[in-house]
């Protein structure tokens, strides 16, 4: 079971890398008012959602403790991120505050994962 959990943790990290990497590649364009949500951001957020849910299930099946409040907060943030990216994915440009919000929520989600013990 440990190997399976570690595999999905790796996939979860790849998802966050795609989401954050997509955001970071658009920072210069954001400064010029031309940022857009790239497909990597949508696919990364979707990967995070699917692998996160699977990880919760695998950890519970393995009788490992799961902090449901932490998972709920992370899930809420991810749903907001995914919703914003999904709705605005076809727009040629995204407003700076909205684009910045997605980056802020992404970084917040990372720090919740790392620091909330």
Characterize the structure shown.
The chain is an all-alpha fold and 117 residues long. 79% of the residues lie in helices and 0% in strands. It has helices at residues 2-25, 27-31, 39-61, 68-87, 96-115. Helix 1 (2-25) runs antiparallel to helix 5 and helix 3 runs antiparallel to helix 4 (68-87). It is elongated and about 50 Å long. The protein starts with a helix and ends with a helix. The relative contact order is 0.17.
Quick overview of this protein structure:
The chain is mainly alpha-helical.
How would you summarize the topology of this molecule?
Elements: H1 2-25, H2 27-31, H3 39-61, H4 68-87, H5 96-115
Number of E strands: 0
Roughly how many Å apart are the termini? 22 Å
Major beta sheet, specifics? none
Which value, in Å, is the CA radius of gyration?
15 Å
How much helical structure, as a percent, in the residues?
Answer: over 70%
Tell the overall outline. elongated
Low-confidence stretches are none
- SSE order, one letter for each helix or strand: HHHHH
Mean pLDDT, to the nearest integer, reads 97
Q: Please, how many helices? A: 5
Strand content: under 5%
SS-derived structural category = mainly alpha
């Amino acid at each position: 079971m440990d190997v399976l959990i570690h595999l999905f943790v790796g996939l979860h990290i790849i998802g966050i890398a795609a989401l954050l990497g997509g955001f970071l590649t658009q920072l210069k364009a954001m400064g010029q008012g031309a940022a857009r949500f790239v497909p990597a951001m949508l696919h990364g957020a979707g990967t995070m959602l699917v692998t996160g849910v699977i990880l919760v299930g695998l950890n519970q099946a393995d009788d490992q403790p799961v902090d449901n409040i932490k998972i709920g907060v992370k899930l809420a943030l991810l749903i907001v991120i995914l919703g914003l990216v999904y709705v605005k994915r076809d727009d040629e440009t995204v407003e700076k505050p909205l684009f910045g919000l997605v980056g802020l929520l992404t970084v917040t989600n990372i720090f919740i994962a790392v620091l909330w013990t």
